[in-house]
Amino acid sequence: MFEMSRLIRNEWMKIFKRNSTYILIAILMGAVFLFAFVSSWSNNQQSQSMPWEEQVSQQMNVYEQQAAQSENMEEKIYYQDQVAIAQHRLEEDIPPPKHTGFTQYLLDSKSNITFAVLFTVIIASGIVASEFTWGTIKLLTIRPVKRGKILWAKYFTTLLFSLTLALITYLAAIIGGMMFLERGDGVLLTMVGDNIVEQSVWIESLRLYGLAFVNMIIMTSFAFMIGTLSRSNALAIGLSIFLMFTGQQLVFLFQEYAFVKFYLFTHTDFSQYLQPNPMIEGISPLFSVTVLMLYLIVFLLVSHFSFTKRDIAT
């Protein structure tokens, strides 16, 4: 255990000895602040919206129609809950979060995780491949440490780095939102059992970021595998970024085919389970977790055997 922690610490120090790491973090924070500023500017350019009571009444009518038309029981219950929440708002004079306010912005800011995923992919793909590029791999392998431990130390370091970037993204979103967005802009409500209760924006935003972090883990592991297998930093980054931006589109392209249920990117977006219908009919949170775990095991096994069994050559 001590040896593994020492290896992880060494890999962590390697990452933060590079100036490029600090540049990536600065770009990440700048992008998050820019997102907050653009959100504020865009909201200020919009015309005055209708009173919130009218908006909620219209939404409630839509939910009632959807509940009446739905043949799926889970979907029907979801829309019935939304009707009850909307009715409760009108009766108790509880406004929803404004689309121009801090609360809604913080919930929407989970999309900033995309930047964190992009930068983590760059680190994950190069943490092994760069050792071959720079010719330092032989210095690692002549140490009295098994290759497997070296590899796992690098992998755990990339996960720790991805968590760090996710936390930086969340904190930057909070700071940016407080700087540019208005506060005190409404109340989140949710249904717990048969009761309607106030929902904490902090807990809900952390939950959304946590769901987005699932995709971050998968993309980090995939980039790590490609970098280990190909020993090419450029290939790992290019392929990972390509799939990151096209993976979801391929789900909709092949949604009529049965094999799409087992396609990786069908399951990486866990926020789909916050809605009544997932992207593909017949999948569930448990099924998604199972599929993702199988993919993750494959990624790690391929990485392990590629690194430990192949000859080291620069």
UniProtKB/TrEMBL annotation:
A GO molecular-function annotation: ABC-type transporter activity
GO cellular component: plasma membrane
Keywords: Membrane, Transmembrane, Transmembrane helix
Transmembrane segments: 21-42, 113-134, 155-181, 208-227, 234-254, 283-302
Name of the molecule in the record: ABC-2 type transport system permease protein
Organism: Thalassobacillus cyri
